[in-house]
Structures are given as structure tokens and as C-alpha cells.
């Protein structure tokens, strides 16, 4: 049994595995049974399994690291998240087992303890597993929890960093996260805490001369803007919301803390998005030296 899961029913991933159709790269749910280890059939012991916690980057497959691309192509099993795009998944071999473990707001395909147990189970069966996460696995990706579960169960694993969304998406929107004249500090926070609240350190986040990047914060955007202004950030502080950053469908709304929630509502932005707050956002307009990508910029400063 998985360490730390005492009292839970034994984990089975028979109902959560997705197999690839031969005629397309679309995945569908199908029952699945993993063959028993060869040792159980009287043959030699299977090779030791290993789990790679791999960052898939912010969306554009060209932003994958070379190592990530190689591991994805070599995997026996890929356990992938909601934010991993089609372009990245296209690198998976046709005979690779796929397991969807994505999480959307209030909709988790698998509870985190079951994902941990799945990774342990697959590795114990001698599989070469890629746990594929959007962005970087150790930046709001629960990679630390999964690494701890693997370590506690004696499973060999490796961390493969990826371009985190804050860096990749901001660059795609031409927003420099730091600048000698505008931002001497950079803070990443998640807008969706474990208990579902936005109980953040507002005085610290409202300090001047810093850039604030908020992951998963769209639902709480009005509260975010209100709290930052209430704790000292000027209402005129530039801010932006980027949807589908780095992808051809990228859309950007630039406004101020006072006007951003209404601008975003009017534009109809939906997750996944990234929020950037700080004077550096105003520099994006100056960096549009050529026409922005079609339909990408919805509201300017």
C-alpha cells in the first residue's frame, strides 16, 4: 500500500486509463488491465521502473526542453494534466499508454492521493513513466507532493524542469517581468488556495516596485484587484490577463487595477489565464513595434 494511504482501498487504475485510437490522436476512455510482472509468471524480474516528473512548458510545443521531448517520445506510460496541449501530446508514441489526470476548477479527474498511488503502482510494474505537467512541475504543479510520495515508497524518479507559465506567457505577451526602472522584485502566487480562498498576504503583495504574477486567479480577479488597491497599490497600476498564452489562440487584456475586471468580463476571457500586475505591463505597448498577432490584444492601456 502507498505510504501515507493507510485505511484507503487498494488503488486500481483500470477505469482511468485512456488508450489511443489507431485512426487519430484523440484519446478515449477504455478499461485496461496491466499485465502482471514477469516474475509472477515464473520469468525474470521486470526492469526497475522510473517516474519522470516533466514540465511541458506553457503550451507552445516549441518551448519544450530537448530532454522533455525525448522522454515523452520514449515513455511506456504518460500521465498527463489538463494544461498539456495537443501539440505536446502529439510527441507521444502511438503505442504509449495514456492516463488523463487533469484538474480543472471543482473538477478533478483523479484525487491527488490516487495520482500518487498510480505513479507508484506503474513504477513497481517496471514502467517508464512520464508524469507530464503544464509549466514546471515544481511551480504550483503539485510536483513536490508527487515526488514525496515516490520517495516514501522507494521509487526512482527524476525532475525535468519546464518553462513556467509566468515566464513563457509574459514573454509571449511582451511583458518583461523585471526592469531596472520599474520592478526590483518578482512574486508568484496562486489565486486558488487549498481551501478555495484567496487568503493571501495582501500587504506584501501590494508593495511598490514589484511585479505580481497570479496563477489560476481568474475567478477571484475582482477580489484580487480590490484587495491590492485597499492595501496600497494605486488603482492606476497597469495589469493584464493573458488567456491561452504562447498559443495561436492567445488573447491579452491590458488595463489597470480599477478597470481590469470589467475589461476581462467584457472580453469573455476564460481559463487558463495568467494575471500580471505591475508597472512592467505598461511596457508591453511600447514593445509592440510591429502589429500584434491577429486578435491577440483586446484592450490597451
How would you portray this structure in words?
Helices cover 24% and strands 23% of the residues. The radius of gyration is 21 Å and the shape is elongated. α3 crosses α4. It has 9 helices and 15 strands. It is α/β, with parallel strands linked by helices and 301 residues long. A 7-stranded mixed β-sheet has the order 2-1-5-4-8-3-9, with helices on both faces. The protein folds into 2 domains: 147 residues, Cobalt-precorrin-4 Transmethylase, domain 1; 134 residues, Tetrapyrrole methylase, C-terminal domain (Methyltransferase, Cobalt-precorrin-4 Transmethylase, Domain 2). This is uroporphyrinogen-III C-methyltransferase. Belongs to the precorrin methyltransferase family.
Write the layout of secondary structure elements.
Layout: E1 17-20, E2 27-29, E3 50-55, H1 66-74, E4 77-80, H2 86-89, E5 97-100, E6 103-104, E7 107-108, H3 112-124, E8 128-133, H4 143-152, E9 156-160, H5 165-172, E10 185-190, H6 202-205, E11 210-215, H7 221-230, E12 238-243, E13 251-256, H8 260-267, E14 273-277, H9 283-287, E15 297-299
Helix pairs in contact: 3-4
H and E order: EEEHEHEEEHEHEHEHEHEEHEHE
Q: For the report, how would you describe the main beta sheet? A: 7 strands, mixed
Q: Name the helicity range.
A: 10-25%
- State the CATH superfamily name of the largest domain: Tetrapyrrole methylase, N-terminal domain
Number of strands: 15
Tally of individual domains: 2
What is the C-alpha radius of gyration, as a whole number of Å? 21 Å
**Mean pLDDT value:** 85
Amino acid at each position: 500500500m502507498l505510504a501515507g494511504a493507510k485505511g484507503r482501498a487498494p488503488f486500481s487504475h483500470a477505469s482511468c486509463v485512456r488508450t489511443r485510437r489507431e485512426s487519430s490522436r484523440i484519446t478515449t476512455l477504455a478499461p485496461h488491465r496491466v499485465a502482471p510482472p514477469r516474475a509472477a509468471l515464473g520469468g525474470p524480474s521486470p526492469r526497475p521502473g522510473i517516474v519522470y516528473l516533466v514540465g511541458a512548458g506553457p503550451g507552445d510545443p516549441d518551448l519544450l526542453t530537448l530532454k522533455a521531448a525525448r522522454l515523452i517520445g520514449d515513455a511506456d506510460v504518460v500521465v498527463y494534466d489538463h494544461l498539456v496541449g495537443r501539440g505536446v501530446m502529439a510527441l507521444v508514441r502511438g503505442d504509449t499508454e495514456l492516463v488523463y489526470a487533469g484538474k480543472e476548477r471543482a473538477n478533478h479527474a483523479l484525487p491527488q492521493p490516487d495520482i500518487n498511488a498510480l505513479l507508484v503502482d506503474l513504477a513497481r510494474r517496471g514502467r517508464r513513466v512520464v508524469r507530464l505537467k503544464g509549466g514546471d512541475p515544481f511551480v504550483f504543479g503539485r510536483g513536490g507532493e508527487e515526488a514525496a510520495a515516490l520517495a516514501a515508497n522507494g521509487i526512482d524518479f527524476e525532475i525535468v524542469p519546464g518553462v513556467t507559465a509566468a515566464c513563457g506567457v509574459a514573454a509571449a505577451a511582451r511583458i518583461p517581468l523585471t526592469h531596472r526602472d520599474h520592478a526590483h522584485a518578482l512574486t508568484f502566487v496562486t489565486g486558488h488556495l487549498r481551501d478555495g480562498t484567496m487568503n493571501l498576504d495582501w500587504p506584501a503583495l501590494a508593495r511598490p516596485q514589484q511585479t505580481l504574477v497570479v496563477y489560476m486567479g481568474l475567478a477571484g480577479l475582482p477580489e484580487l484587484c480590490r484587495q491590492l488597491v485597499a492595501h496600497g497599490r494605486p488603482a492606476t497600476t497597469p495589469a493584464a490577463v493573458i488567456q491561452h498564452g504562447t498559443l495561436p489562440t492567445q488573447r491579452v487584456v491590458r488595463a489597470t487595477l480599477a478597470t481590469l475586471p470589467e475589461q476581462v468580463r467584457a472580453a469573455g476571457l476564460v481559463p487558463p489565464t495568467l494575471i500580471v500586475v505591475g508597472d512592467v505591463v505598461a511596457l508591453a505597448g511600447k514593445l509592440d513595434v510591429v502589429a500584434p498577432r491577429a486578435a491577440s490584444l483586446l484592450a490597451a492601456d
